[in-house]
């Protein structure tokens, strides 16, 4: 594993890296919803956290490449606050608000389950009867596995069925019907009972699709109509639909999906004909209405849809956690229900209490959004004093300023792969491009926690006061050696903002050896994009201009230059660069078909947006 790949994996699991002092806020000392919201926004917590340090929401989003997020918090049995942050599409830059639709992904399942249980409550569906009794348009293949596949076992994932999840389909492409999906005529394998029903928990989105078909066969209605009539309308979930594909003219305020780099995916989002398990478009505010319904019946009251009897059915777990469409957890002996979701480019999660009327819903529009959702949930848990949801913090060890300064220096893993340890505002910091600067906390014995992550740095010393090397816990076998004051690499010039010097040195390296890994095109583009992300657009522009000079046929280089020009406010230059990118895409042999289509779609979207910006 290279050190770069190691850091990529680490950052995908990490938190924001510009630490601020926590104020240890609690709901008892915050009088208004606005106060509580503000406290959450500035007190995000990583799973491993250092006492006295928390992180701001907006910077966390930037570091994790999450363009947009929407949050709703339930307190004392009612919606306390809801807010949107960031943008719903990185090409249009239109803002997320509380009415912006996100794909709920697997959070679709508990909402769909409510409709199935309502059918049972009304006598149209027996949860313990064989699912075959209700199927007309599809028949589950016979299996040697024992035990009946029933609606109940489908809802709690004990039906012994395969097909856990789904990849989705391209907008504008062929979309199979639900029965065709079950027969394996889409991009997932045919549904089968592969083990004894009722014997163990095995997550199956395919089973949920089977129940979707059964519900349509029972009611003789399409699934979106079922959901609108039985759940969404009664709960006043007016910003929700199971329509697949989404009609973007009817629902213009919707989010696009984004990849790990925060880039809009081809087509804007994927289509999920697997509506029961993955097809809901909604908002956290609407999911809060669903949560409040479940909390009401959990408290023994009649809801708008369910009676307490059927609420108990829904909330009774088997094999520990899985209930009917939900998962049950205990925190400090208190029961909570929850579900997360993961579609292409959308990650979301919610958690809510059985008693007391507490809950939080987080929806994001990025492949890296799950980490953000967990940090937000922990921040809400801290502010609202929910029990047993946050690990005990690490404690900093006292260390003198003179001792801290001994660790500062440049440590090289290999040529132009340098970790920079610096002192800033009495705090030791680490930075290695293409990643951000991160604060360190001393733990003792030459170990420093990278604040906001689960990782740490170990420094090694021999006979000197100054450390001679370092290693990071996610790649402990790789050691970076302290450089002498005379050693230098171009990446150091980039860090210091000296673009011209860095570009001159990269050109000389290329002239001496065009195959040198230091001037590999993909590496230089990655450096340019990272510098751009960390607010040095002028440096990124100059580096990207150099890259297009060295690699004029590389479409990704022109894409990076277009982004840099755009961030520098040079709309005409950005437009020309993106048009050049379009011209280069067909001839760029470094692109496979998937990357080619993705870059083409992304560049067209950017050009459409730039046309709106031109005078």
Summarize the structure in words.
- It is globular, with a radius of gyration of 26 Å.
- The strands form 5 sheets. The protein has an 8-stranded antiparallel β-barrel. Strands 4-3-12-11-10-9 form a 6-stranded antiparallel β-sheet, with helices on both faces. Strands 1-2 form a two-stranded antiparallel ribbon.
- The protein is built from 20 helices and 20 strands.
- Strand 15 and strand 16 form a beta hairpin.
- Helix 2 packs across helix 12, helix 3 packs antiparallel against helix 12 and helix 16 runs parallel beside helix 18.
Tell me the layout of helices and strands.
Layout: H1 3-12, E1 20-21, H2 33-41, E2 53-54, H3 57-64, E3 68-75, E4 78-86, E5 102-103, H4 108-121, H5 151-155, E6 169-170, H6 178-182, H7 205-219, H8 223-232, E7 270-271, H9 275-278, E8 281-282, H10 284-298, H11 308-315, E9 327-331, E10 334-343, E11 346-353, E12 359-364, H12 369-383, H13 401-407, E13 409-414, E14 417-424, E15 427-431, E16 438-444, E17 447-450, E18 456-460, E19 469-472, E20 475-482, H14 490-495, H15 499-512, H16 521-533, H17 537-550, H18 555-567, H19 571-584, H20 593-613
Antiparallel strand pairs: 1-2, 3-4, 3-12, 5-8, 6-7, 9-10, 10-11, 11-12, 13-14, 13-20, 14-15, 15-16, 16-17, 17-18, 18-19, 19-20
Helix pairs in contact: 2-12, 3-12, 4-8, 10-11, 15-17, 16-17, 16-18, 17-18, 18-19, 19-20
Keyword list:
20 helices, 20 strands, Serine Threonine Protein Phosphatase 5, Tetratricopeptide repeat, disordered N terminus, 3 domains, single chain, Beta-lactamase, 615 residues, alpha+beta
């Amino acid at each position: 594993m290279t050190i770069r790949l190691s850091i990529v994996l680490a950052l995908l699991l990490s938190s924001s890296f510009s630490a601020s002092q926590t104020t240890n806020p609690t709901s008892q000392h915050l009088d208004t919803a606005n106060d509580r919201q503000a406290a959450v926004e500035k007190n995000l917590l990583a799973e491993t956290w250092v006492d006295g340090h928390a992180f701001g929401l907006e910077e966390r989003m930037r570091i994790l490449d999450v363009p947009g997020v929407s949050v709703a918090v339930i307190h004392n049995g009612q919606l306390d606050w809801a807010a949107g942050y960031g943008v719903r599409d990185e090409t249009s830059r239109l803002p997320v608000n509380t009415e912006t639709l996100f794909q709920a992904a697997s959070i679709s399942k508990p909402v769909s389950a409510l409709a199935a249980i309502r059918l049972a409550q009304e006598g149209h569906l027996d949860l313990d009867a064989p699912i075959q009794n209700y199927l007309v348009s599809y028949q589950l293949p016979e299996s040697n596995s024992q035990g009946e596949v029933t609606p109940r076992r489908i809802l709690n994932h004990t039906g012994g069925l395969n097909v856990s999840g789904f990849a989705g389909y391209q907008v504008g492409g062929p979309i199979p019907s639900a029965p065709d999906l079950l027969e394996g005529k889409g991009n997932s394998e045919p549904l089968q009972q592969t083990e004894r029903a009722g014997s163990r928990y095995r997550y199956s989105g395919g089973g949920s699709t089977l129940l979707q078909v059964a519900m349509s066969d029972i009611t003789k209605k399409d699934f979106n109509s079922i959901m609108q009539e039985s759940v969404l309308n009664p709960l006043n979930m007016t910003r929700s639909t199971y329509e697949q594909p989404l009609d973007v003219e009817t629902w213009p305020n919707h989010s696009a999906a984004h990849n790990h780099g925060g880039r809009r995916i081809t087509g804007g989002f994927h289509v999920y004909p697997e509506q029961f398990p993955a097809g809901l478009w909604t908002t956290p505010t609407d999911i809060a209405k669903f949560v409040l319904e479940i909390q009401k019946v959990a408290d023994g009251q009649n809801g708008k849809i369910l009676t307490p009897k059927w609420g108990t059915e829904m909330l009774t777990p088997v094999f520990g956690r899985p209930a009917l469409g939900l998962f049950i957890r205990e925190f400090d002996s208190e029961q909570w229900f929850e579900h997360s979701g993961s579609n292409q480019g959308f990650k979301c999660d919610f958690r809510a209490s059985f008693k007391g009327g507490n809950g939080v819903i987080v929806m994001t529009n990025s492949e890296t959004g799950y980490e953000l959702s967990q940090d937000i949930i922990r921040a809400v848990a801290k502010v609202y004093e929910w029990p047993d949801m946050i690990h005990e913090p690490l404690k900093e060890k006292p260390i003198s300023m003179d001792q801290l300064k001994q660790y500062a220096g440049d440590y090289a893993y290999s040529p132009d792969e340098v970790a920079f340890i610096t002192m800033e505002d009495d705090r030791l910091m680490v930075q290695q491009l293409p990643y951000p600067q991160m604060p360190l906390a001393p733990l003792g014995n030459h170990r420093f926690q990278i604040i906001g992550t689960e990782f740490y740095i170990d420094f090694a010393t021999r006979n000197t006061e100054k450390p001679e090397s370092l290693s990071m816990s996610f790649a402990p076998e790789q050691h970076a050696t302290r450089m002498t004051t005379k050693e230098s690499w171009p990446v150091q010039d980039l860090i210091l903002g000296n673009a011209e010097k860095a570009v001159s040195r990269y050109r000389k390296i290329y002239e001496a050896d065009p195959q040198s890994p230091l001037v590999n095109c993909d590496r230089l583009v990655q450096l340019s994009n990272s510098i751009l992300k960390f607010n040095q657009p002028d440096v990124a522009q100059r580096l990207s201009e150099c890259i297009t000079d060295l690699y004029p046929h590389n479409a990704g280089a022109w894409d990076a230059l277009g982004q840099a020009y755009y961030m520098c406010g040079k709309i005409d230059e950005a437009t020309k660069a993106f048009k050049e990118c379009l011209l280069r895409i067909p001839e760029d042999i470094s692109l496979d078909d998937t990357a080619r289509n993705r870059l083409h779609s992304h560049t067209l979207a950017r050009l459409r947006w730039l046309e709106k910006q031109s005078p």
